[in-house]
């Protein structure tokens, strides 16, 4: 019988979620939705030293913002609760004991000093990567080297110990990765990983395997940085007797810096000129602020569409996909093998597409909010009209105010470049007539205003192209923008006349010729 697809996103709350992590969560979610399976979130917090306050809430808020829904999680529960590993602490020891009993794990009593000593000794003997492994374990203090009664005594007297996996010395470990194909690793490259720490907490490796098994996970989709751990995980499944139901693995290609040199990392913060986090993050220890996509004006749908394409493609020309469309199209087979370069221009492009597809009335909301902050009143109809005029010219919602302020506030500065080229006495003569005759129009709209301007230009023996830029300068102060006649219609006749007057006096030094 086909098993129900169950995938999990398993972040550690050691800081803000990186965009690479969001992509991992997204691909898991898409597979779950595509197959009618379940998306699980598990918090992997066994490393208490790396705990960062606020990180878990940040993860939750980020996924909610992105529209990545969870079927089971610490926040909405589920049949395999708890979903936070620290709360599952009592469950892990029995599996470590099972491994000890079957001869696949052992107690190790070495102190930190003894471990250091071993590493130094190996370094001196020119061993490239000194490790606790099949060779060195026999020189250390553990239940394989100490007499049985001493082991017993140490355990009974509460001597600190860890439990290590007994990795075979010579064995080929194979695993089939859904993205990379067969991956082969020789067991001599794997060290005797600690499974249980001396504080009674499992390590990531043990907890991850036990939980994926107990939570009936069918596919492990995670970042490529976990590929080196995968053979060890295969050994754990095998020794625990769970190989039959071992999940399938898919290790996602790395997200690379824009120049292709190296992995895009959390530490890049804002250094590369764009956010690496979905939401703004304030470091609780240093108060350092890192920007987020949300606060930068990215819409979640655009952000998700962009992330989906960083490593996956549908094999067609279509680029704009809703979450539902992504879920329908998504397959692991179409995930690329090689790292994907990060391209913030593409993110911006997606944002523009989504922004333009929104109804003017919705976009007007962004403008109205900014106007309220600036204590400027504006009717919803007017805001809608302006949003419609501006939407092809902005990439982010906050730009509606920034780029369209001249609809509300008369210019106080004029582009010097345009003034010196386009402002002259002929234009001023046309504008004087124009501002005076605006009052004669019985119907004031873009068309009637344009007709008026054209008839005045005819009288002066001029063409519209000769004055348009200068008129735009007078009315908006800017070099470019949407249709000027539409702008004038929105601004109104009185304000237009006032602005022309102001420009004529402010730019008089250019009107000598
Ligand atoms: N807790 C690991 C992380 O923080 C999860 C790795 C995995 O998915 O197995 O990325």
TrEMBL record:
Locations listed in the record: Cytoplasm
Motif 'HIGH' region: where in chain: 11-21
Main location: cytoplasm
Enzyme Commission number(s) of this protein: 6.1.1.17
Domain Glutamyl/glutaminyl-tRNA synthetase class Ib catalytic: 4-349
GO MF annotation terms: ATP binding; glutamate-tRNA ligase activity; tRNA binding; zinc ion binding
InterPro entries per the UniProt record, alphabetical: aa-tRNA-synth_I_cd-bd (IPR045462), aa-tRNA-synth_I_codon-bd_sub2 (IPR020751), aa-tRNA-synth_I_CS (IPR001412), aa_tRNA-synth_I_cd-bd_sf (IPR008925), Glu-tRNA-ligase_bac/mito (IPR004527), Glu/Gln-tRNA-synth (IPR000924), Glu/Gln-tRNA-synth_Ib_cat-dom (IPR020058), GluQ/Sye (IPR049940)
Domain Aminoacyl-tRNA synthetase class I anticodon-binding: 378-504
Enzyme class, first EC level, given as a word: ligase
Catalysed reaction, written as an equation: tRNA(Glu) + L-glutamate + ATP = L-glutamyl-tRNA(Glu) + AMP + diphosphate
Binding-site residues for ATP, renumbered to this chain: 266
Key words of the record: Aminoacyl-tRNA synthetase, ATP-binding, Cytoplasm, Ligase, Nucleotide-binding, Protein biosynthesis
Motif annotated as 'KMSKS' region, chain positions: 263-267
Job of this protein: Catalyzes the attachment of glutamate to tRNA(Glu) in a two-step reaction: glutamate is first activated by ATP to form Glu-AMP and then transferred to the acceptor end of tRNA(Glu).
PANTHER family: GLUTAMATE--TRNA LIGASE (PTHR43311), GLUTAMATE--TRNA LIGASE, MITOCHONDRIAL-RELATED (PTHR43311:SF2)
Subunit structure: Monomer.
Family: Belongs to the class-I aminoacyl-tRNA synthetase family. Glutamate--tRNA ligase type 1 subfamily.
Designated name of the protein: Glutamate--tRNA ligase
Lineage, uppermost ranks: Bacteria, Pseudomonadati, Bacteroidota, Cytophagia, Cytophagales
Gene of this entry: gltX
């Amino acid at each position: 019988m086909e098993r129900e697809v169950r995938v999990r996103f398993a972040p550690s709350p050691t800081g803000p979620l990186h965009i690479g992590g969001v992509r991992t969560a997204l691909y898991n979610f898409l597979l779950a939705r595509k197959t009618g399976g379940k998306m699980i979130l598990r918090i992997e917090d066994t490393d208490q030293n790396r705990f960062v306050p606020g990180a878990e809430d940040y993860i939750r808020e980020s996924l909610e913002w992105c529209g990545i829904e969870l079927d089971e999680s610490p926040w909405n529960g589920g049949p395999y609760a708890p979903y936070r590993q620290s709360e599952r602490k009592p469950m892990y020891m029995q599996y470590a004991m099972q491994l000890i009993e079957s001869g696949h794990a052992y107690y190790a009593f070495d102190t930190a000093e003894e471990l250091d000593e071993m590493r130094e000794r190996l370094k001196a003997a020119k061993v490239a990567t000194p490790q606790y492994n099949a060779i060195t374990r026999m020189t250390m203090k553990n239940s394989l080297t100490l007499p049985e009664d001493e082991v017993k005594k140490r355990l009974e007297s509460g001597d600190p110990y860890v439990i290590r996996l007994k990795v075979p010395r010579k064995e080929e470990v194979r695993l089939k990765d859904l993205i990379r194909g067969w991956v082969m690793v020789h067991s001599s490259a794997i060290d005797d990983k600690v499974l249980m720490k001396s504080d009674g907490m499992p390590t990531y490796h043990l907890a991850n395997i036990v939980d994926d098994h107990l939570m009936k996970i069918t596919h492990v989709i995670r970042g490529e940085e976990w590929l080196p751990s995968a053979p060890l995980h295969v050994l754990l499944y095998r020794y625990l007797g769970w190989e039959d139901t071992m999940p399938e693995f898919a290790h996602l290609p790395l997200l690379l810096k824009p120049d292709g040199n190296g992995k895009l990392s959390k530490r890049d913060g804002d250094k590369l000129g764009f956010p690496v986090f979905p939401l703004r993050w304030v470091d609780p220890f240093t108060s350092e602020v890192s920007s987020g996509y949300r606060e930068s004006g990215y819409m979640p749908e655009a952000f998700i569409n962009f992330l989906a394409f960083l490593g996956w493609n549908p094999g067609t020309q279509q680029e704009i996909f809703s979450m539902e469309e992504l879920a329908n199209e998504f397959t692991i087979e179409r995930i690329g093998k090689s790292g994907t370069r990060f391209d913030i221009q593409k993110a911006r492009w997606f944002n523009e597409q989504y922004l333009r597809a929104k109804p003017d009335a919705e976009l007007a909301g962004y403008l109205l909010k900014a106007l309220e902050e600036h204590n400027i009143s504006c009717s919803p109809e007017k805001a809608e009209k302006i949003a419609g005029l501006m939407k092809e010219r902005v990439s982010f919602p906050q730009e509606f105010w920034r780029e369209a302020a001249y609809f509300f506030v008369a210019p106080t500065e004029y582009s010097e470049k345009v003034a010196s080229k386009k402002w002259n006495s002929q234009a001023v003569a046309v504008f004087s007539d124009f501002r005076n005759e605006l009052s004669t129009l019985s119907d004031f709209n873009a068309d009637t205003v344009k007709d008026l301007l054209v008839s005045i230009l005819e009288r002066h023996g001029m063409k519209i192209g000769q004055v348009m830029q200068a008129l735009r300068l007078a009315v908006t102060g800017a070099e470019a923008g949407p249709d000027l006649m539409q702008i004038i219609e929105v601004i109104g006749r009185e304000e237009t006349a006032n602005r022309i007057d102001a420009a004529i006096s402010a730019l008089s030094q250019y009107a000598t010729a």
